[in-house]
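User: My advisor asked me to double-check a structure prediction for N-acetyltransferase before group meeting. I don't want to rely on an old file, so could you generate it fresh from this sequence?
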Amino acid sequence: MEEADLQQAAKVHQQAFVRQQRSYEWIKCNFNAAPRFLNFVAELNDEVVGYIVWGQKSGFRPEVILELEQLAVLPSHHNQGIATQLITQSLPQVKQLLAEQGSKLKHIIVNTRADNYAQQIYQKLLGAEVEMTIKSLYSADEVFMIARNVCPD
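Assistant: Sure, here is a fresh prediction for N-acetyltransferase from the sequence you gave:
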């Protein structure tokens, strides 16, 4: 993600997360928090149609616990493989950025609504498994998933 992408990424956020507010501020503060947050976009015909935000948890460590902080695709572009591409194409770049800071990826955590079909994507692509469910956390039950030992020695 580049600064020029912020307005379009905010549009994606606004359409993907209708209960959230102040989309531009949200996207901009995550963008400005690099390298703690690593932001990537998916573009189609020079339009941002999706984005992914990866976050390093608990400080900069030799073995990183990485969170898939947020993944969003314009509703008009659902079921076209964009979310899959965002994960599969950004994760190698994240691993490279971690290596450049002297770190390696250990685990990936992700949380989502319990009824979100994206759980299947996280399980298939990352190997993430549901570790727990928290009742009525945001707008519904929320599951926390972990992909353990993503890059073993």
